[in-house]
Amino acid sequence: MSTESQIxxxxxxxxxLRAEIGKVLVGQTEIVENTxxxxxxxxxxxxxxxxxxxxxxxxxxxGEVLDLSFNRIQFTPDLMPADxxxxxxxxxxxxxxxxxxxxxxxxFAHLILADEINxxxxxxxxxxxxxxxxxxxxxxxxxxxxxxxFFVMATQNPIDQEGTYPLPEAQLDRFFFKILVGxxxxxxxxxxxxxxxxxxxxxxxxILPREKLLxxxxxxxxxxxxxxxxxxAVRLVLATHPKTxxxxxxxxxxxxxxxxxxxxxxxxxxxxxxxxxxxRFNVSFEDIQAAALPALRHRLILNFEAEAEGITxxxxxxxxxxxxxxxxxxxxx
Length: 333
What we know:
The chain is of the alpha/beta class and 333 residues long.
């Protein structure tokens, strides 16, 4: 297949997925776009928003339109790592003998919904770390590979702090995007009411088989990125590192720690997906800028001054995007 045909195939598939999910999810175009970008990049997504905004509905709908296995894990304070990974059980064979057999947990699926992930204890949250990074789990003394593709979508409620455990920075960094789910506008809320308070049911269809998804994910890796675009992504990330020669003034004032190298990787991969979705086989500065907020907002650690003044990481990233020029020549001019 020619490059032009591959680009068109990706663009058509991306548009079909977006339209199919849009049948169910109302007025959340940007959230759907970012979720699809993370999916094709092979990353995981953290959805943050108050209850009732469609976070779980988005994940469930994504599972319906993809020809992939899907499991939901409801995180609670009493959930244990074995409840996620699996454990050895004593089973009786046909010969009447008893032996240990490994009973796989819900983590063994392509698409995982980790609902209200911040309600589980740190011990249980950490059970996801190896799975998210290495696509494997170590359980009952053995290392077991997970099926590809493996995609975790976790949700958390930012306002209910009682009985919750904030995700540690090491785990937050393993999420490709952090997506903030906001309230719908008047038109969107009206449409939600029209769709959910009548007897009408909306049917969605499977769009993307597993083999084609894997092929498109591989195509993403082959999209070229010009050196000056890579340099821009690097300078954006370096500008978040306080107390360094490359730090932006806002970073020195309000950050304790900047983004890890995963932030730069995320910017480039997300830029590749956005380029292909728009029919281009090259990444632009605008693609990098569009990915900056969801890619970096959970990778910046605020200092006490920022928290006291109510400064958000989104505000800091927005100012860094404004202050960091797209080319090094402009910076040195």
